[in-house]
Amino acid sequence: MLEIEKPENLYAQNTLRPKQYYKDSYVQTVFSALNRLFEFSISQGWIKENPCNHAIKPSINKSIKKRPLEINQIKDIIKKTNDFSVHNAVIQFQIYTGMRIGETLALTWNDIDFKNKEININKTINFVGKDPIIGPPKTNNSYRILGMSNTVFNILKMVQQEQNERKQFLKEQYINPNIVFSTPLGDYIHRNNINKRLNAIKKGTDYEYITVHFLRHANATLLLMNDVDIKVVSSHLGHNDIQTTANIYADVLKSKEHQIAQLIEFNLEDDQ
Predict the structure, then answer these.
(1) What is the pLDDT of residues 84-132, one digit of tens each?
(2) Domain-by-domain residue ranges, the chain?
């Protein structure tokens, strides 16, 4: 039987430490992907046991919370993306829908129902190197149908019109006519390209700290600040449960509590 000895000196202990630490969300994403891969392998009879069942997950690192985008900052992003381009359209789409960026970039035209103004979210995209991998959404609750506002309707119509012109020009050279947000040749857009566009927008502003994911947070924050029920917001975001939503947006909810307390005070003062 193989015995593993406990390291007895500092050098030996240091060799067990990782050379680089990653964000908790990234570690969880990698773990989830590996877990699904091994579960599929078991179902195919390729392996007998899922190694992830015995994996030791690293403890969650506490990081400083970054403040959510304010209304004037959101308006600034929208103003800077009003000139049409596919990347600008994606950024505005993120603000108005609150979808995960992987869900947005995986959308196909059969997911879009213009007649009933609905968006069917049923997949996500990840990249292994330059290769796109289409898979199921993050959680079971991530399968959802979102209503389409007039603004989102117009964004998608502009994307469709511009795309149809490219399809007519490229004809059979156009790679995939079913992708909603696509490259000039009709392939999937890498999220890094959206990040590059956002980097150009936020440069020199007071919100340089944001990432594309902050656009999703902006959507949720606006909904909560406009008194949309947390159950509705949780379902809209595709969270596993309400507690997940409450934990992520605890500061926003606390701010609402203060507003409610102040409102009661004002009402009582008016009666005096």
Answers:
(1) 999 999 999 999 999 999 999 999 999 999 999 999 999 999 988 889 9
(2) 10-54, 71-255
Pairing verdict, β 144-147 and 124-128:
unpaired
Q: Which of 258, 238, 262, 260 is nearest to 248 (CA)?
A: 238
Strand, coil or helix: 248: helix
Architecture of domain 71-255: Orthogonal Bundle (1.10)
| Parallel/antiparallel/unpaired status of strands 124-128 and 118-121 | unpaired
More confident residue, 69 or 15: 69
The residue written with tokens 């609402």 in the block is 256
* Rounded Cα gap, residues 183 and 176, in angstroms: 10
Averaged pLDDT of the chain: 84
Residue 220: is it exposed, middle or buried by C-beta count within 10 angstroms (0-12/13-18/19+)?
A: buried
